[in-house]
Amino acid sequence: MRIVVVDPSRTVLKIVAQLLEAGNHEIHPFTDGLAALEHVKSDSNIDALITSVELGSMSGMDLCKKIRLLSANSRQSIYIVLMSANYETRKLIEALDNGADDFIGKPPAVEELYARLRAAERLGAIAARTGPVGDDRSFKRVVKSPGVFRASTRSLRLR
Questions:
Q1: Is the pTM of this model over 0.85?
Q2: Cis ω for the linkage preceding 29 (within 30 of 0)
């Protein structure tokens, strides 16, 4: 996979890059979110972005939103993983709500990082066959009310 890695700490960046290179991934490291964004704009073959939540020029959440908009407009499917030393449920929810596909602690555990990238590769293979998975406004939101939830393909109008 071709992966952009963004972290303001050169030490963390080096650790993550070495882990990924050992897994035969091509790494494009950046300490600045704006530089990483420009690189992704100019390289349509990027498969994944791994970024720290804590960046200098822009937040990792903002970078995630901008990359997600970019990939939606270009139909380029980029798997986005946000990482933070402050791994808590609130951060995880915020990351996913801002367009991240995954969230991982920093520095990441080797096997966990590899497992998440294998999941990204599976999703990439699916997207290659069916088109990118993205923000599809054609779906209907289903909310479960108290009590038993019942639905049929007819009531949901599934195709």
A1: no
A2: no
**Tokens found for residue 120:** 């990204």
The SS3 call for residue 50 is strand
Rounded alpha-carbon distances, angstroms, from residue 31 to 11, 59, 66, 107, 113? 10, 12, 17, 15, 20
Q: Which domain holds residue 30?
A: 2-156
Q: Is 39 helix (H, G, I), strand (E, B) or coil?
A: helix
Tens of pLDDT, residues 48-91: 999 999 888 889 999 999 998 887 777 678 999 999 888 778 88
Q: What is the CATH number of the domain that holds 146?
A: 3.40.50.2300
Number of domains in the chain: 1
Coil, strand or helix: which one is 142? coil
